[in-house]
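Q: Structure for this?
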Amino acid sequence: MPSDDTTTHTRPASAAPDTDRRTRDESLTSLEAGLDALQTDVHARTGRGRRALRALLPLTISVSLLLLVWEVAFRLGPQDVTRFPPPALVGLTFLRLWDDQTVVTALTTSVERGVVGFLLAALIGTPLGIVVARVRWVRASFGPLITGLQVLPSVAWVPAAVIWFGLSDATVYAVILLGAVPSIINGIVAGVDQVPPLFRRVGLVLGANPVELVRHVILPAALPGYLAGLKQGWAFSWRSLMAAELITVGGDIGFGLGQLLQQGRDLGDMSRIFVGIILVLVVGIAVELLVFAPVERAVMRRRGLATA
Amino acid sequence: MTTAPHAVRVTGVHKRFAPTGPAVLQGIDLTIRPGEFVCLLGASGCGKSTLLNIMAGLDRPTAGTVEVAGDGAALMFQEAALFPWLTAGQNVDLALRLRRVPRAERRERVAELLEMVHLGGAAGKRVHELSGGMRSRVALARALAQERDVLLMDEPFAALDAITRDLLHDELERVWTATGRTVVFITHNVREAVRLGQRVLLMSSRPGRIVREWDVDVTGERSISAPQVASLALEITDQLREEIRRHAV
């Protein structure tokens, strides 16, 4: 194709200028089209089914291995089922708790609280995060406080929340918010800080006012960091929720996974405790795999930051 | 189009980044005629990007004035600087949207602008799916979407390979002829300056000043390898090296 280029340039100047320009433009167009085609990558995308399989297979292997180690540990140990039950016994307990609706009640109660609490935290944390990231004096004065709040384990709020709100769902939500909002704020701030200065300058040159700059440039550019913040916010919500549920039993409060764990302790039922722990873990993994991972992958792929 | 005799007029511009710091720009006087293609040439660190930023209104001069015809200038950056979360078409569209062009008109304008840079079929492509040359052309289309008489370009093709850059020179020349824009093009590549500019201004470093200028009157087509381009480039290179040598201690 470059040979095409040279012929254009050595064309004698005697040719009629109009036709000359036209042929030159045409050859430029085809030359450019050729170069564009050569320089554009062609790669097939992995199908959804294959990708799911690729994610599930290693997980199956790791879970099977874990169960195997657990079983072997049980057999090699003192075989005391009240202190360390084998997988099969925990499985049976799970089925029993499933049949009497305990599992479903605990799961739906906790997941509902977790999701509602997390969404509330996102709703509160997002605008606060934008303000902290963009307004210098707010950031200087409240930034360190918010980071401090993030370090403070939200369980520390439980006694206070119980006194303020009693044994009610409000206590649970208060603890979730105090745990999750700071980490969502920090996620946005980190995301905004990572926006390349060049993007802001482009926005300014294109004539964006401060609001448009945030809306069209800074927020979209900060999206990957924001997503990471939301993910962390969910982890904090879920952990705070478990801590709150574990401590606050009785009163008006509904029966969640934390209460299931506490019940296991009260009854001295180790299998029940194991069922509780596994359910807490499974929900955490499921939300990561089914909610956050696909969204993150879609965002990254759209920006060319991840393949397949 | 403006009827004023100048598209850009820079008068006595000085720039220091700190009150006691060294002068980055010193006594820059410059008039650019409407429709002119001017190349600002200089070694790295001579303040040419600073001068361009001042013309673009992104930075203020410490002293002196800058007048730009119309509503200010459009600017094309060193990297294509497209937004990766948007498609090629949406990147151009955003420039129109921020100018408050009504939605109904925008779709057609985006198609026209992309067609202008021979990317009519790439509107739906994501930025990472485009080659470097295609990204530069989308950035050019976005700069044209700003509808400003003056187009400032800050080493826009510096990161491209030679074949692509050659082609973009042809492309830019064609777009310049077709749109009648005034172009101020910054580069540290002497041949590129001579290939593109009607006038080449050489800047010295520390402090940045305009030390010499050449009118490029190559008749007919010029390519980067045309003999007239090459001989003028040699002359300018000599002068540029002389300027750089002055800094040796």
